[in-house]
Amino acid sequence: MSRADIYGLVLSYVYAFGLLFGVEAVGKHLKWPLRVTRKLVHIGAGMWAWGILYFFTKPSYGIIPFATFIVLNYIFYRQQAFKAMDGQEETLGTVYFAISITLLFGWLWRTEGGVDRVPLAMAAVMAMTWGDALASLIGQQWGRHQYTTFGHQRSWEGTGAMALVSFAVMLLTLWWLPGSRLSPHSVAPPALWLMCAAGALVATVAEAFSPAGTDNLSVPLLTALVLVGWDRFGAVTLAQNIVLGIIISLLIGVGGYLKGALSRTGVLGAILVGAIIFGFGGWVWGMLLITFFLFSSALSRYKKQFKETLAEKFAKGSQRDLGQTLANGGVGALLALLAWWQQEPLLFAAFVGALATVNADTWATELGVLSRRPPRLVTTGEVVAPGTSGGISWLGTLATVAGGSFIGVAALLLQLAAEHWSGLGYAQIGTWSREATWMLLPAATLGGLLGGFCDSWLGVTVQASYYSSARQKETEKELELDGTPNKLLRGWKWLNNDWVNALSSMVGALTALGVVWWLAS
């Protein structure tokens, strides 16, 4: 350990505790709101990443301060030691932030051999440091246009601040840091403006739709994955696909809005999911997503008037909002990112399974409520009202199998087309065997069936269910139209219908992946 590393360790802890005690004292003296002091600590902690680069000569020593604060921040959180850092309603966000920085610097920082990509790690950390802080402060102070995702209320003003600030700080970081004294072994990445725009898009989506506190993990880690992937695999084709995906998703989203299939926020969700899946997955992935949306939206309109008599009970209707579009397509978007990053074609099977699950669930819901026989709970067999979460019927089960199989057939045909017209779609990610193509049908069918079963089981066991005093009946809605909160009857409050859909699609994805892997072996 050099003298500079020793100085760096000492100064890191002096700075950290000085920041905590200083902000606590000044905030108390000036009577700052707790939200302000917490964000000042958040910004101050993130900015010390620059100090790490300045003082330390070896990454193995440089990550020690942030690594130790994983444990210290947890202790502070449990003991509520610093009000400027943690409050009664706070989460483990400070712990997650320390984990993110430790992982990113340990992964990307190289001073002796190997490719040094620490500017990309720094850009991702700065997006979280400044983007998240200003999004929160601006949203709370000036946020007038609200929207809700996965049970959390956000504002468009805060989300816009997140996008603009993230783009600006990443652009400045990647323009100045590579090749400078702090990072002499790194090289400026290509297509910097487009790269930062893609990173800002991912950072904004991750911040808006992560459960409370977990954005300290999702924002820097997902943003870094996009930046590193861009740097490793090139930008031109990716940028073209993303732009094309945005255009196609916008056209379909506007059409869905005019037809009543999407709300205004649902259009935004469709654009975000479509841009990621088209851009990082390719044509086959994108066209399969469009196939799901078009046919499921058409099915939602089948006997719509009859179904609307049941809509009062449930959190979602036939018009998809932002949360529902992300619940249906978010897992697929993450798989597209992962497949592009790992260059692993087998993950296409997981994508098919995820989409088969949400399609199977949609078909089961839209057709199952038309059954002449009342459904029964998947857990006890008790007869329940049509449309009740966890209720299944023979018609709904057949619709589940048909919905999953439909996606399997569509994936099979699209992949065969891509193989016939080389370069049309999935060929851009690794290689895909003809034998694996024919396995997509059983993979989608089984994935959709098990994913749909998981959706029903979660719906009756742990999904949040409320009692409406105003209407004197059970409901999935947390709030009434006038904002009055309903009483939680059972389940986990955070686990609403959107999260159940997302978790179920993960089960479908893993099932389909397992089927293809087993058949191939």
Give the integer mean of the pLDDT values.
82
Q: Which outline best applies?
A: globular
CA(first)-CA(last) distance:
49 Å
Task: State the secondary-structure class.
Answer: mainly alpha
DSSP helical segment count: 19
List the domain count as a whole number: 2
List low-pLDDT spans. 423-431
Which radius of gyration do the C-alpha atoms yield? 24 Å
Determine the oligomeric state from the structure. Answer: single chain
Considering DSSP H and I runs of 4 or more, what fraction of the residues is helical? Answer: 55-70%
Number of strands: 7
Largest sheet entry: 3 strands, antiparallel
What amount of the residues lies in strands?
under 5%
Topology summary:
Layout: H1 3-30, H2 34-55, H3 59-62, H4 64-79, H5 93-108, H6 118-142, E1 146-149, E2 152-155, H7 156-176, H8 192-209, H9 215-233, H10 236-258, H11 264-281, H12 283-300, H13 304-308, H14 322-342, H15 347-368, E3 376-377, E4 391-392, H16 394-420, H17 434-438, H18 440-461, E5 465-468, E6 473-475, E7 487-490, H19 497-520
Antiparallel strand pairs: 1-2, 3-4, 5-6, 5-7
Helix pairs in contact: 1-2, 2-6, 4-5, 5-6, 5-9, 6-7, 6-8, 6-9, 7-8, 8-9, 10-11, 11-12, 11-14, 12-15, 12-16, 14-15, 14-19, 15-16, 15-18, 15-19, 16-18, 18-19
